[in-house]
Amino acid sequence: MNVVVIGPRGKMGRLIAQEANERADMHLVAGIGPKGRPYIGKDLGQVAKLGEDIGAPVLDELQAVISDCDVIIDFSTKEMSLEVLDTAVAYRKAVVCGTTGFTEEEMASFKKAAEVIPVLYAANTSKLVNVMVKLLELATTAIGNETDIEILEMHDRWKTDAPSGTSKELGEAIAAQLGSQLKDVAVYGREGSGSRQAGTIGYHSLRAGDIPSSHTVFFGGLGERLEITHHSYNWECFAKGACDCAAYLTGKKPGFYTIKDVLAI
Ligand SMILES: NC(=O)C1=CN([C@@H]2O[C@H](COP(=O)(O)OP(=O)(O)OC[C@H]3O[C@@H](n4cnc5c(N)ncnc54)[C@H](O)[C@@H]3O)[C@@H](O)[C@H]2O)C=CC1
Ligand SMILES: O=C(O)C1=N[C@H](C(=O)O)C[C@H](O)C1
User: Fold this and answer.
1) Is the pLDDT of residue 135 over 70?
2) How big, in percent rounded to 5, are the helix, strand and coil portions of the chain?
3) What is the residue extent of each domain of the chain?
4) 127-232: same fold as 2-121+236-263?
5) pLDDT tens, position by position, 184-201
6) 215 annotated active-site
7) Mean local confidence (pLDDT), 70-97
8) From the candidates 27, 42, 127, 159, which is the catalytic residue?
C-alpha cells in the first residue's frame, strides 16, 4: 500500500511515518508539509526522524504526488484536512483522517466525500479507547438513566480543540445507548454554576504540560460512582491505529468507515 502522510513534522504525522516505515505492507511515497517550511524538498526520513533517508520527498503540494499513492493518512488541522479531502475526491484516493475539532457541517463533507472514495474517520485510533466504548455501552444500559454522566478529558498544552474529538464520540455513544431507552436525551456542556440538569452529559477539558491523552467517564450515583478511564502514556497507540485503519482500506469500495469496522468489536 502506497501511503502519503500529511504533516510529517507534527506530533502524530511523525509517529505515523515511523510506524508506516516499519510495516512490510506499507510504502511511504511522500510527506506533505505547509508551504514555506525549511524542510520542504528534504527526504521524509530526515523530516520525520526515521534515522535514514528513505527516498521519499516532503513536498508542499499534495497534487504533485497523489497519483502515486493508494491512501492518504491525515492528522493535521481541520482546514488542511478539508483541503486534503477535496483533493482526494478529485483524484479518487482513499483517506484516513484522525484530525479533530470539526463542526457537524464539516463532518458532513466527509460523508459526502465517502460517496465517491473510501473515507475512514476516527477521532481516536487507539484500540483500548474503542474497547472503552463497549464498556460505556454496557454501563449506560445498566445505570445510564439513574446516574449523572460527566466526561473529563486531559491533554497537552498544545491541543487546539476542546472538548476532544474522543469526548464527543464517547458522549455520542452514550447518548445513542440512552436514546434506545429514553427519548430526546440532550447532550451538551453546562455553562456557569448551578445545579445539574437531568438528561445531560457534561464535558470538561483540562490542558496541562505534555499529557498525551486521558478520558474518564463518570457515572455519578448517590453514595457511589463508577469511573471508566483510558490513559495513553504517549501517542504511539494512535499512530499504530492510524496505520491499521489505512491497511483496512486496501481494496475497499467508496464508503464511510470508522474504527469500529477495523477492530470489528
Ligand atoms: N484520531 C486520533 O487518534 C488522534 C487525533 N489527533 C488529532 O490529530 C490532529 C493533529 O494533532 P498533532 O499531531 O498533535 O498536531 P501537530 O500540530 O503536532 O501537527 C499538525 C501537523 O499538521 C501540519 N499542517 C498544518 N497545516 C498544514 C498544511 N496546510 N499543509 C501541510 N501540513 C499542514 C503541521 O505542519 C503539523 O506538522 C489534531 O486534530 C489532534 O486532535 C491526535 C492524536 C490522536
Ligand atoms: O490531540 C491529541 O493528542 C489527541 N486528540 C484526539 C482527540 O481529540 O480526542 C485523540 C486523543 O485523545 C489524542
Assistant:
1) yes
2) 35, 25, 40
3) 2-121+236-263, 127-232
4) no
5) 666 665 566 667 878 888
6) no
7) 98
8) 159
Q: What is the percentage of the chain residues whose pLDDT exceeds 90?
A: 89
ipTM: 0.99
- State the virtual CA torsion across 243, 244, 248, 250 in degrees, nearest 10: 30
Report the topology of domain 2-121+236-263: Rossmann fold (3.40.50)
Q: CA–CA separation, 65 vs 242, rounded Å?
A: 20
pLDDT digits (tens, 9 = 90+) for 212-258: 999 999 999 999 999 999 999 999 999 999 999 999 999 999 999 99
Answer yes or no: is 7 a known binding residue.
Answer: yes
Determine the residue type at 99: T
Residue 97 cell numbers, joined: 483522517
79's CB contacts (< 8 A; 6+ apart) are none
Closest CA to 189 of 209, 164, 154, 213: 164
Q: How confident is the model at residue 151 (pLDDT cuts 50, 70, 90)?
A: very high
Tell me, yes or no, if 42 is annotated catalytic: no
The yes or no reply on domain 127-232 and CATH 3.30.360.10 is yes
CB 102 within 8 A of CB 78: yes
Residue whose C-alpha is closest to residue 55's, from 65, 79, 221, 171: 65
What H or E segment, with its residue span, contains residue 228?
Answer: strand 225-232
- Closest CA to ligand 2's atom 4: 213
Q: Which of 60-64, 138-142, 197-201, 214-218 shows the lowest mean pLDDT across its residues?
A: 197-201
Q: Are the C-beta atoms of residues 110 and 81 closer than 8 Å to each other?
A: no
Ligand nearest 48 Cα, by number?
1
